[in-house]
Amino acid sequence: MAEENNTTPSSTDDTVLQQQFMRAVSSFEGIMLSQINIKNKLANRLNYGIGTGLVILGLIAASILILLLTLSSQINRISDVVTEMNRDFSVVSARMAHINSAVASMEQRVALLQGMDQHTEVMNQEMTGIATDLETMRTSVEQISGHLNTVRGNVDNISTIMNHMDNEVSGMGLEMHRMGQPARSFNKMIPFP
């Protein structure tokens, strides 16, 4: 009998300890499962945030690439226009050299005419030479007029090219404004500090 009384409380204690152990294991398992669930949710949010960031960075990179390509094209156009202007300036410089030579020739003819007062006695003999000199001067003036017309045409070309450059620069400004629209919209949605 005494032995039975000793074993009975021991069995009850074991049962209680087993139940407590099972509750502790269940609580620990619940805690571990909730931590794993929280970690999974955080990992999903982090993955979503990283994916969204990569998409935004890709859009920004594409916008920058398009902007750089547009700027490169505009710079190439401006370079072509400047090269054409340099050619026109070279033509104008050559025409001015012709005009200078014609003016020098006219000065020589005028210098010859200035000696007429000193040679009045041989005026009749020099009249033929004077007529020839005047004809040469007339030809030189016509050449100067032709050169001036050419210079005027070149200046008109330069003016047209400058207007074209102004239009290109205005177009570039509009293109820059249009390219900046996505960034402004993005900044309105998510303002940067």
From TrEMBL:
UniProt KW keywords: Initiation factor, Membrane, Protein biosynthesis, Transmembrane, Transmembrane helix
Listed transmembrane segments: 48-69
GO MF assignments: translation initiation factor activity
Keyword Transmembrane annotated: yes
Name this protein carries in UniProt: Translation initiation factor 2
Lineage start: Bacteria, Pseudomonadati, Pseudomonadota, Gammaproteobacteria, Chromatiales
